[in-house]
Amino acid sequence: MGMKKERLQVLIDTEDRKNPYTDEALAKKLSISRGETTLLRQKLKIPDSRERRKPILCETIRQILESNPGISKRGVTGQLQQMGFSVSRFTIEQLLSNALYSMEEIKSAVSSPNIGTDVESGGKEFISTAFDNLIGQKGSLFPIIEQAKAAILYPPKGLHTLLLGATGVGKSDLAEAMYRFAVDSGRLNIKAPFVVFNCADYADNPQLLLSQLCGHMKGAFTGAERSKEGLIEKADGGILFLDEVHRLPPEGQEILFYLIDKGKFRRMGETESLRQVAVMLIMATTEVQSAALLATFRRRVPMVIELPSLQERPLQERLALIHYFLKHEAQRTGNSLNIDADALKSLLLYDCSSNIGQLSADIQVACARGFLNLITSGSKTLYITVSNLPAHARRGLLKLQHQRDKIEKLRITSCEILPGKENMVYVDELYSVPREIYSYIEEQYGKLSMQGVSQEEINRIIGSELEAKLWKWIKRANDSPEPIVKADLYKVVDKAIVDIVEAMIEKAADILIRPSEQIVVGLSIHLTETLKRIKQNKRIINPHLEKTKYEYAREFAIAREMAECFLGQTGVRLPEEEIGFITLYLTMYCRQDADGRVGILVLSHGHVAAGMAEVANRLLGANHAKAVEMSLDESSETALERTIEIVMQINEGKGVLLLVDMGSLANFGSQITAITGIPIRSVGPVYTMMVIEAVRRALLPDTELDELAEMLGQPYLSAENLSTELLQNDVSFNKSKSAILTICITGKGAAMQLQKEVERQIGRQQGQIEIICMGLADRQTFANEVRKIMKTHSIKAVVGTLDPGLPGVPFITVDQIVKGKIASILQCAPSRRTTVAEVIQEELIFYPNPEWSKPQVIDLLTQSLLSRDLVKPEFATDVVKRELIGVPILSLRVAIPHGEDPRYVNQTSVALAIFPEAIPWGENYRVNVVCLFAAATDGRELVQELGGKLTNDEIVDCLIEARTPAEAKRILVQGENK
């Protein structure tokens, strides 16, 4: 291993910085697997190839943009390729869309090695705690702090800096920390001034604002009875922090521009002389640069730092901020402060529009309300519950079901903050799950019963979920660094119950392989709740009872002995259902670590997968489905590399199911398994209900990968090789025979009747087309038979009661056969791949009223396809459903509404709406072109080809300028090989 690490490090050190080695390239050079290479790189804490290239790529892009401000993304990509970068426009669009400001990356790699180690320009090391109080300094704020350090240390006198970020993200705190760092580093004298000025204070009086900033001479304006020094002069030798700098009038920005450029300025009313100052400017704004600041001013600010919003920061950092503010309030009031878990969760999840500033204010409001209760009750502890929070903050609990996985990882519990203490005392850490078992079962029973789920299925679902829930709790308890303290446990349950449980567990000592302290905690709390229910004559429901009795017979027998011990100590006889719960605890502590769940990954071309995954996760209250979206001009290699990274993250030991839409993505499964060794199955084409069902099944701990793939694969043939063969079926023109398949479940009965009717209708063609009966009950047998037929026949159509979903093969329903439509359908069936020129029809290109709303435009396009029988009526509803998931946007000017289910498409087709002036499309978009895709199973490649044209800036420019449908069609088909 050591030799491999050394060789990997040498390869990284000597690689081409413009085109660093991918993990696949490294694997070939090291003669090891791709998966081993990735793990080795991660152990050495070496970023992936994209991150290693990012500094030089961003710096080069900055230089290109500075020398040619109006250049297009396509132009940037072309220049980069000429300079030796192997990059796609997709990569460049990603960087530019992530707010790549003109100088942002230089400073994290301007790359003085001194920046990371806090070294003065002379080489002398120093220690600075200036940024230590910024929560997230080693997390989301780390690159920001590195940029801030670079700005201070950059020779000879630092870099003037512009801080960008919404209200309340901490721009003022960062500016103050930068000043302290400048003093610690010796860049500024310890007595150097730090002058703060908010430009909004005098925004309504520009003359007074400029006077405050620059000072004025006597008589400069009415009321100027004496000369006055301005803030620029007061900050000489130090730092001037200008908050809300966008509120400066243009003449004020020009003054700063000259100050940045020359280090000189004039007081108001001063005409002959210039004043020289040595001042570093740190400016802050909430506005987008181009919208509020003069171009001449922006170009002269060398360092731009953007701070993330609270929503963009990790939840653990938000939790640390909450704890920090709570500690501050405990210190201010001098009282212990106790906040319950629900209040903490609500503060973590609510929409905090004004960021950290609002979070602090809302916590102060909650503490003020709690303090009022403290005074009236005479208590010495300030209690904070959800009811104490402002109304808008309470709404955070509504998001809990969608963020449950993340919250569970943070182990949110009630906590107590003591004034003057650094540490918090956490309570109720190990006690929640055993206490909630009964309420959880009752709640789930109610939900599933309302959905009409059978009793047997309810028991299976709840039993499996309960087992997974308990197993997760036990793993968390075992991983806890905190030892079980009996005194803490006695605060929660009676000591007598703990003693009884310890006596009961002695009877199971021979089978327990885990520390007994945790099972004492779980059973003590659980049996306390059991006693309450028995005394209140409440029913005890155990959905796992039958499985427990038969699958864990040995543990169940020991649990009976434990129940007898409980009876002897308390006089209470436990029902059999409760003995089943005791058995469940025993089985959890008797088994070794088990595999987790099947991972779910949705793959799509364009912006589709993330929306599907989000809907499934939201509906099921989970965060299990992940997504990878492949841009139409992104290479398969790049998409595969991103997919492998996600697969390795989400694999819990049972493999990963890929839900794919089309094309090259369908072949990723076998490649990923070959590289990583992780079991992969691929199923598709994917649609939202498939994702929901996949996640629901995957959350059950007894679900296996193959089982899940087989279940979701109906009616689609998910075997990748077969799919590839079938997609190529249309080019089999040199085969001697053609075939029509008639299908029912068994291959007899209905299939044979259909065979006779098909033979009757095709008449003279009967000698050229063979009619073959087939059954669909056994999918593998069906797939093998189809392969055999394809070796000698070209499959023209499938006729039957069930659609097997053969890609590129028309499916003809029984109803269509009865109506005698088989001949016309066969005549229209494509014998080769449809071209863009054929699918773009002038009568399907529109120039609608620019005042029309989005629903009106979509209705126009869907109805135009429906009126020509290109789609089924269900297609319109399918399009609307997809829009509710998220707005599909191909580029900033092109929207691509579409349906998800190819069964609603009779023939691959496209309808276009063109607007010379952009129209609103969704909440954040304005588009000029709306392209409605209706893709049948054989039309995916055509959609991809047309999508590539619509991401071409030059083509879109011409399309917007076109004034007739004929001209628009000519632009879209221009250059196509016919």
TrEMBL record:
Gene3D superfamilies: Homeodomain-like, Mannitol-specific EII, Chain A, P-loop containing nucleotide triphosphate hydrolases, Phosphotransferase system, mannose-type IIA component, PRD domain. This is Sigma-54 factor interaction domain-containing protein. One of its GO terms (cellular component) is membrane. It holds the Pfam family Sigma54_activat. Residues 597-727 form the PTS EIIA type-4 domain. One of its GO terms (biological process) is regulation of DNA-templated transcription. InterPro entries: AAA+_ATPase, P-loop_NTPase, PRD, PRD_sf, PTrfase/Anion_transptr, PTS_EIIA_man-typ, PTS_EIIA_man-typ_sf, PTS_EIIA_type-2_dom. The keyword Transferase applies. Residues 134-368 form the Sigma-54 factor interaction domain. The keyword Nucleotide-binding applies. One of its GO terms (molecular function) is ATP binding. Residues 838-975 form the PTS EIIA type-2 domain. Keywords: ATP-binding, Nucleotide-binding, Transferase. Residues 492-596 form the PRD domain.
